[in-house]
TrEMBL record:
It comes from Thalassotalea litorea. This is Transglutaminase-like domain-containing protein. It comes from the Bacteria. InterPro entries: Papain-like_cys_pep_sf, Transglutaminase-like. Residues 354-416 form the Transglutaminase-like domain. One of its GO terms (molecular function) is transferase activity.
Amino acid sequence: MPACKRVHPFINLSTLIALVLLQGCGEAPESALADKPTKVSQQQSLIKDGKFAEARDNIQQLLDSKKLSAKQRQGLEFERERMVRIEQDFSADLADVRAYIEKHIGKVSEQELAKWQSDGLLEHRVIDGKTKYFRSAGYNLFQLDEQALKRRKGYQPFTERAPLYALNQHHKDIVDQVDPDNSQAEKKRFKIRYNLKVNANVVPDGELLKAWIPYPREILGRQENIRYIDSSPKVHQIAGEDKLQRTIYFETPAIANQPTEFWVEYEYDTYAMSVAIQADKITTVMPDDVLKQYLEQRPPHVVFTPELQALSKRIVGDETNPYKIAQKLFAYVDNIPWATAIEYSTIPNISEYAMTAGHADCGQQTLLLITLLRYNGIPARWQSGWEFSPKEFDTMHDWGMVYFAPYGWVPMDVTHGVLDSDEDALKWFYLSGIDSYRLIFNDDYSQDFEPTKQHFRSETVDSQRGEVEWQGGNLYFNQWRYEMQWQDISDELISEQAVLSTLAEPDFSLPELNGDQVVMVITDDENAIQGKLFSFEKQIETQNNSSIWKSANIETDIVVGKTGIAWGKGLHPEQVGQQKREGDGKAPAGIFRLGTAFGYLPDLPTGLNYEPMTASHYCMDVGGSPLYNQIADTKIVGEQALAGNSEPMRRDIHKNDQVYKKGIFVHHNPGNIAGSGSCIFIHLWRSDSSPTLGCTAMEETAMDKLLAWLDKDKNPLMVTLTKAQYQSLKRDWRLPEIPAN
């Protein structure tokens, strides 16, 4: 970035307060007003004041009490964790910082150190009476101070090493290629290998490590044709395309004295974009239900504080055109000097930090710009991932999207900022465009992962490095390391058709199973006890002789296991995540064949084979028995062979209920592996709020329709998934399209 951006004077908090007073004493928005102190906020105040020991004592006393809500307990536990993270960031003494500086520019005086500190160039904070410095304070001095930089011979600040942070031929090529009808240009294809290695012995031998590695989102016109190539472990779960912070998930046990490695390889297409905005054509946004959320405050990082309102007034002045307002805000935030950042999880309000710290990194700048744009009625949102360049430069990076009516959403990258050109299309390129060298993982910040992470994330805002945990807690950044390798393969002879062909032929899919009928059971999540059942039948289209799934018009509410669902053993490939076990109260997720119908009556109207149950029929649920997961008749095998069994098939006789009056055997755990779950059926429910011990149940009228429709000659299948699993797998497994909602 140009030198002027490093020496831009920042606005400190006292200046902002003065601006508020000059603006007047208008009431702040309700969400910006101070709340009544809470158990958590009281400790946050102590942490802000550097009173860590006092905060720790208070938190421990509160956690030892029995009067906390789950939310309060979680909040206090995170504040305790946040102090640890702050101490890791601010681990340097002045002597450490001085040694780093003097290593590169020679002896420095006490007066120079004092001035750099008073100017805010050596980031520090007082913790329990001791002044501690940001571990990268010395490094940041050479990003922020022109005079110090001149003394460091042959050194280039970080952003000046990046070819695309200044006007480049790539920008000109993009602008030359686009037109009003086509904003895409400069298509590239990249190959990525992302590696995450957990240090040896950070968890006990044999403990299960869980890892989430960022994975690209499919975004029409920006990032397409994503092709998974390989990974270790082989078994993985790619989050659904609807996840705004997308990941690929792995599990593997730790081995004593050895690091644990996770990696993934994939390819994808990316497009540059440039939209020629004409200010006189811009109209005021009329927010609909979708746009409204991108105009709202979102505490803690997007808040219209009095200080921010005052700053906005100072920058915008009397301007009313949304695009010209955006230009003013963009130029202001661009002028904040770049510096490497303290961890986002330690910052109470990132946009406020960017406004007052005197420097900011890409994500901090982006959140400040988003907040200012929203305050001025301009929809804005987050986007992030990685950036490359035509040369060797690469880094994780954050940028955003801004909405201008009538143009719609366009990219913005305030860290690349205003380019040095007299031509507006180039000067303001990054206010309505983006280069080709991007990898997009995230279309929002602080979003849930799939599967959900159980412990605090290391990075609570962004998702670019990865996350790791085990049953004992989160593994922080100092317990593992990551590496991202990229290769531009745009010139290799890989046709788009070949890519699409690969995408269309996954290793496993539903049509391979030769079932012409499918029952789909979908629940909200792994813990939900209720869900929906849908029915589909395969039909052949005569025009091209291809098969499609058509609804069979049987749709009903169902209940599943009392603790939800977990991956079972069936026809599907092994999946990562919780696996079904005997007695866990979970219905099996996956794909299974449907077998014989059963019931209390001598016969039922169904296209399945039917077996009437008697008082001597049982399903064996005792592990280790040779009859495990099988129906047996005590009159044939003897009562001793079924000793310990708890699953009579005539529950009306033995248990005085009607749930097995009508049912269907589900071929779960066909290998009858002990402990993997047994005796799984579709049967009648007691009510829509009464879950099962691991089966799927419904009301009797729906069961009658299902039995009448199912036909053994059509090899019926059952698919049970959560909504997230369905979204993640529907393309690769070629599942039927279920109705929205």
